[in-house]
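Example A, followed by Example B.
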Amino acid sequence: MGLSGASTGAGVLSCCDGLLQIEKETELDQVVALAGNPNVGKSTVFNNLTGMNQHTGNWPGKTVANAQGTYRYQGRNYILVDIPGTYSLMANSEEEEIARDFICFGNPDATVVVADATCLERNLNLVLQTMEISGRVILCVNLLDEARKKKIRIDLKLLSQKLGIPVVGTSARSGKGLNNLMETVMRLTRSDQKTNPFPITYDEAVENAIELLRPAVDHVLGGKLNGRWVSLKLLDGDESLLKSLKNYLGYDLLSFQDVVESLERARSLLAENSITGDLFRDRVVTRIIQNCEDICRGVIVCDKEKYAERDRKIDRILTSRATGIPIMLLLLLLIFWLTITGANYPSELIAAGLFWVEDRLTDFFTLISAPAWVKGILVDGMYRTLAWVVSVMLPPMAIFFPLFTLLEDLGYLPRVAFNLDDFFRKAHAHGKQALTMCMGFGCNACGVIGCRIIDSPRERLIAILTNNFVPCNGRFPTLIAVITMFFAAAVSGPFQSAVSALTLTIVIVFGVFMTMIISKILSKTILKGMPSSFNLELPPYRRPQIGRVIVRSIFDRTLFVLQRAVVVAAPAGLVIWLLANIHVGGISLLAHCAGFLDPFGRLIGMDGYILMAFILGFPANEIVVPIIIMSYMATGALTDYESLAQLHTLFVSHGWTWLTAVCVMLFSLMHWPCGTTCLTIHKETQSMKWTLLSFVIPTVTGIAVCFLVANSVRLLGLA
């Protein structure tokens, strides 16, 4: 997706130099910043206004994503910039710093702050901080439909009078109020009119310190920024603002003698009143919260005192110490059962269609009398690998991702993070790692990208390095096939899929356990540190929009992941075919490599062919089992079996036991990330060192666990 064609032509203008490239059609285009807390519907407002006229990327030099989009209203283009969702602009995290810097230095013509009508008082904290920076702020009170259901009434007119800025009510999910929002943006940006924001007055000592410093700051800035707010930040010791001022305006405030002297006098004044260190920020934050309470008094009326009682009752069950974890595991079991049961038939249909195309390609190469090696490389190698990856990956993803997105839309995933927060904290990791771990179930590459939500660089790296310990969609086929053949085969009928789902859930719980163990080890060694605190907001439960969930999960996740897998599967097919069909001394290169690896493979409970299959499956984990089949049968091309019973017989004839199956499952769970994930890790960390470590850590762990299990069972005489 991208902006309109005109926006990328000769009329493209640069705005916000060094911060973010804004693409304009004409100089009359208006830039609108869209701010707000997480979970207030900011993205829904953005998507409904911009539609398909949007594109995403990263903020320059950052791992945090940005989105820009355009909408046209009354003959003029408005460029909407969706800045990171934050609870404040105190610059305690990368997201807060980016949001603050864009409002300060991005020169937006207006800043729209989206707030949640069901918890408006808490959201006003960000609104007041934004008003301290900019004189062109609009408050969008979203989710009015949910507020009505909870018997909450908001007097928007009175709120606008108290705040001194335009206030618009919306229900973005249904599109209500967005026209009024656009009209308000147009009126504010088309005139020189400035709002009259509510002035925050701090303690007398703080106010005196600000007024002592402000004249020197105003003299240097020359009106380019709000001198009162900059003075407040200087007194707070905000070094990130000093850095940003130097980067974007070229001002090093502390190089001006007047500013330094005034700052020293102002801090001495604060010290005389015993306001030092963190106490200054506490005073500032406390005063903002008091103002939020004062503003909301008379504006918000709750006809039903216990309007959130339903959510609290549900949370008493879903986040309880006694029932939270068991319910989470049951939901995980249900999702896996639905995925396993539902994916079989469509997978067979897709495979039949794709392999029918393969037959037609074979007929074509026969018709033109192409050399056998050409047909082998293009059809038996590249196309067959592609067909296998698509037929195996697409159906489970088309089921798993919508179910996962449904839980996300419902508001359950933050409860998962809440339930696991204590465990991750004990592992000295971040509670939000629970969310990124859940993303990894669908695709580890998506899980790695999701680690951007973790503010601490140390904890973000821990989450990235351990994301591979939960199996992605590409490893499910191997796990499910092995589980069904060696552990669920004793059960027939509909119960077989239930046993498979239960066994798979146990394997995944072990993966989660290993995630926490390795996180703890990393936090005690190469990534030392204590877990940072964070506020995890539990959003209200919402009725999911089924159509939106399906579209978002298919286009944003399923097809995105499938595209990446397809890109690496074709070259992998070429390499696999060459190794299987180039013979040295009457034996294929694949067999030579497997023979070399066999002693080590048997040491960890497998064999050389299995290890070789995992190595060749680096580009796409889905092809591990087909490579094992091809190797055992020496067919020279990927081969499918008509039934798992036949496959079980083939594996047993090559020495597989229940111990081999367990070691294959453990190694599949814990081995190197696929090629797509490694590329994603390198892009996110911008470091070859961390990319290599992300490869080495799970691989060494998988080898160690398999070695311990295999040799312990052998010593006990159980295999």
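Example B, a separate protein, is given below in the same form.
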Amino acid sequence: MTETPVPISSCSVPEDAHAWLSADAAVWARRRPANWARPLWSILALLVTVAVAIAVEPEPACSDAVPCGTDWVGMVQMGLALGLLYWYARLPELTLVAAPALAAIVFWEELPHSGWTSRAANVAVLVALALGWAATWARLGARRRQRQLVEGTVGIRNRLPASVGSPGRGVFPIAAGTVLCAVAVGAIALGLRAVHTDEQHASRAVRTTAEVLSRNDVSLRVRTDDERRIAVDAVYPEDYGIGTAVTVLEDGSWRRLTAEPYDAVGWQLLALAVGLPGLSLLITGVLARCRSAALRRGPVPALRVLERFDHEGRTWVYAVDDDSGDTPVFSCICVPTSLDGDEPDDPHGVAYDDEKYAVFDARLHGAVMVGAPYEGSELVFISAYGDGNPVVMRTAGPVRLPRAGQGPVIHAQADVTDSESDTPEPQDSDRVGRVAASLKPTGRPMRWGPTVVARAGGLALTVGIAVGAYVFTGSLMTDGFGWHVIPLLGLLMLISPAAVFLNWRVTADSTGLWLTDAWRTRHLPWEQLRAAVYTRDGSVEIRLSGGGIWQLSGLGWPSAERLLRLRPSYARMVEEVTALHAHPELRPIEQSPQRNQGRPLGPALVLLVGLVVISLFIK
């Protein structure tokens, strides 16, 4: 059905901006990569072939002639294989280097020393890597063709609006990635030092032949030639039968089997656990920074388009003559920055319905797209909103091409139901008025946070995470990879809720709200606040102008709270913030000092768990 798009004022449209028509958009869309180049096929091929290669690879027993020990090449293989499963989808630029590197290691290290079954499996891995590498080239080639098509179509180019400012994307990923990569390098250095120390002991140790008397899960009981009975640690005790002869190295109190040099697997796992995310974040940040800065180096294409903002926070772009909005060309996440340098109150024409609920304007809006679009590109939009006034918006995430049948979500589900459901009652005007009447304005900042009971639960959860990480990591070091890795990963996922239970914080002052969750403290000016909602699943949502949401998940249990007539601190916070939003005269007039704005505990808990795990390696 044809609709009339909200027009953008002519003074906001750059001179000679080219109209991106449906025919142009269709040609651009046809330059997307073929279906065989989709990352899914490369990921599945690599996952299946690597799993088969690991399953059929023979496990040689440790011996004096062929001792076990730290496998640095194997660590690199594992890191590249795990990384490629993510880089295929999100970082094809890194795939161009990682896939050939892994293929070279497999070719030189695995093929010459394997049997026919294992060799066939490794050849399949090489084929999968070749498929992924070719698919990556196809995707990057499609990006280049799409960019060149737009740049060739648009004859006149324009400078970016000055209000966009300096590129902000990529700063946090670069900083976080650098820190994680530094930790990975430190772990590798500590592993190398431990291996070197073991080699020094072995070089001056006395070799003793002994007979295995008994064994358990972690050690052997042996009798030496001089009739001493000693215990020797063993990583693979099942490889040594009762009555077999082994060689023991002794250097004072230091003792180990000749067949089992020190294995730095613990340091290797730590390096992989932080190095892979760190490298991914670092490369992502650098690419985002470079693409954002490229828009400012010179004139760029400007295209007149239509856009639609949906309830999931995505901006969908259409050809300028697609008045029905039936064929979205691509989508992206955008953040507003107004023409005069201030954040707009309403970047997408959002209006309130009876001042209670935010109703998003899902109509088509006129816009000017600055920059050449392609999958992963950075763009700037000069958009119309509300009554047609312009706002400058820039991408906060990469451009994504929609799959067949995919489109914007323009029908939001209601947040409340009747009183018999499990959903908390809506914040109607009478209730907001009662809460407002109960507030006594003092001018000082207002704070809300967890109760003593919640903090006790968060503390207990933290202790459980630390103890569990210690136990499961110890088991991982002793037994190697197995099903016990899954509980360890599950425990690490509980760090975020533990940090929230311990120290979530919302502070209201004259400037707005300071919102502290597990990982960061965010400032929300009053004019950007849409609503505060306590949802049916017990989560707190602070809804922002433009469709963003700040959320504390799983804080409460609404049905039990109603049954017991409880009014927990987070529910009271939602009610009082709603009252402050509706009655500006009740807001604090003083600014909150920084020490009272809250500090996220997630990084501290990660450091705590990391220290617990590291303590296993430095015993």
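On Example B: The first strand starts at residue 18 and ends at 19.
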